[in-house]
Amino acid sequence: MTDTRNTRADVVEAAGRLFAARGYHGTSMRDLGRELGLQGSSLYSHIRSKEDLLVDVVQRAADLFVSSAERATALAGDERAVLRALIAGHVDVLLDHVDEARTFLNEARSLDDPHRERVLAARDSYEHTFRAVLTAGAASGAFRRDLDPIVTGILLLSILNSVDRWYRPAGRLDRTQLVDAILEFTLRGIALPEHG
Amino acid sequence: MTDTRNTRADVVEAAGRLFAARGYHGTSMRDLGRELGLQGSSLYSHIRSKEDLLVDVVQRAADLFVSSAERATALAGDERAVLRALIAGHVDVLLDHVDEARTFLNEARSLDDPHRERVLAARDSYEHTFRAVLTAGAASGAFRRDLDPIVTGILLLSILNSVDRWYRPAGRLDRTQLVDAILEFTLRGIALPEHG
DNA sequence: GCCTTACGAACGATCGTTCGTTAGGATGGG
DNA sequence: CCCATCCTAACGAACGATCGTTCGTAAGGC
Q1: Under DSSP, is residue B143 helix (H, G, I), strand (E, B) or coil?
Q2: Which end of chain A, N or C, is less packed with Cβ atoms under 10 Å?
Q3: Contact B23 A148 (CB under 8 A)
Q4: Tell me, in Å, how far CA of A34 is from C1' of D6?
Q5: Any residues with CB less than 8 A from the CB of B61 and at least 6 apart, and which?
Q6: How many whole angstroms separate alpha carbon B185 and alpha carbon A153?
Q7: Does A103 touch chain B (CB under 8 A)?
Q8: Residue A125 burial (CB < 10 Å; 0-12/13-18/19+)?
Q9: Closest Cα to residue A84, out of A102, A99, A71?
Q10: Looking at residue A23, what is its pLDDT?
């Protein structure tokens, strides 16, 4: 019963899986066919080229990240609340769509120019959302004023973009605790407060 | 004058450059030959296989990271000083050997089993150094006691391993300021201290 | 005269892709 | 209700290109 015929969405999903695990150049069309129980040539009933698949996977991830950020900023609340929502949204996208997100983060460089620029633009817009909240928080008094929001945003996103490399849902932290840990680290750091 | 004959070290260095830029599977031996002004087949005067090159590049980066950590822990000083040295050492390796470090971080999965395990073991040992300092600092009172050193170490290393993706020496921060920014973020976070 | 470095042709394997064809379910007219 | 039709998904052979690699050979400095 599971061996019904495949749709384009099935192909894109399997492509995400393999691209995430072995990279775009490390995945052949025949590999991808085998993953679906097909011949490599049969994939061309669904797509026009291998690059098409990468575009689809990466674009889908980009959309997920951008719309997650939009939902977070639409929230009522001070900058801390929005920042928490941004972190939680990023973690959700990363963990609920690991393969697309991984491919987005690691394989975008294999896109050819028009597509790569479009993806980099989406990423810029996404990162800008983080910077904007950090800047607003510094102005409103929620965050320190002596830190550069650009650098701070990059450091936070460095943490977030690495979550899929180590976090395992079966481990000690559930997802809420993960978000809390990242937020706590970002807000207060590891130093003892009473210390100089 | 620059077109003297090439040594094995030249080949490994050029391989690191291309592996970092295009990935292991995205780099062909003929690409690599062209980078050195050679035929692809001529590379086999210096190496036995393409995989050899990846092993060399990745192993070299692993050694650099591990010995950097050893130098940092050999330092006199409290845990904050050692932590700063660890951060500075990591940044130095990453920026002074970008290509090897990038390849180490991104292409280790393309190694076959015996070599990959050895590299993962080196990485584990390196990360253990960070955890050990964080644990010692929590015990001595330099750092907060309510944070998990394992998680904290991972978050810090997430920041450090991403530095090469955004830091440009021509930008606003020189290298010392970069280390200071990371240390400050890690120790105190972005929240206003007087805030709840 | 040897040893290192490089060449260039060639190997079989695999790459992404095209093509003509087919099985079978959906569709619609009589 | 049946049959002709169409469409989608898949096959398998084949294409030229490129892959990593081998081999026999040549050039040139210690």
Answers
A1: strand
A2: N
A3: no
A4: 29
A5: B93, B97, B100, B101, B103, B104
A6: 11
A7: no
A8: middle
A9: A71
A10: 98
What are the backbone dihedrals phi and psi of residue B143, each rounded to the nearest 5 degrees, phi first? Answer: -120, 165
Give the closest of A162, A182, A191 to B161, CB-based: A162
For residue A143, which phi and psi values (nearest 5 degrees)? -125, 165
**What is the b/e burial string over B59-82, where b = at least 16 CB atoms within 10 angstroms of the residue's CB?**
bbbbebbbebbeebeeeeeebbeb
How close B190 comes to chain A (CA, Å)?
A: 5
Residue B188 and residue A188 in contact, taking contact as beta carbons nearer than 8 Å: yes
pLDDT, tens digit only, all 196 positions of chain A:
346 789 999 999 999 999 999 999 999 999 999 999 999 999 999 999 999 999 999 999 999 999 999 999 999 899 999 999 999 999 999 999 999 999 999 999 999 999 999 999 999 999 999 999 999 999 999 999 999 999 999 999 999 999 999 999 999 999 999 999 999 999 999 998 864 4
**pLDDT tens, position by position, B152-161:** 999 999 999 9
Q: Measured on CA atoms in the order A171, A172, A176, A182, is the torsion positive or negative?
A: negative
DSSP class of residue B173 equals -
Q: Which among B134, B144, B161 is the nearest to A192, CB-wise?
A: B144
C-alpha to C-alpha distance for B7 and B76, rounded to whole angstroms? 40
pTM (whole model) above 0.85: yes
C-alpha span between A48 and A42 (Å, rounded): 11
pLDDT tens for B62-108 read 999 999 999 999 998 999 999 999 999 999 999 999 999 999 999 99
Query: Could you tell me the CA-to-CA distances from B143 to B48, B77, B160 in Å, in that order?
Result: 49, 15, 19
Dihedral of the alpha carbons of A114, A118, A123, A124, in degrees to the nearest 10: 100
| Residue entry with tokens 């990423």 | A123
pLDDT at residue A2, rounded to an integer: 45
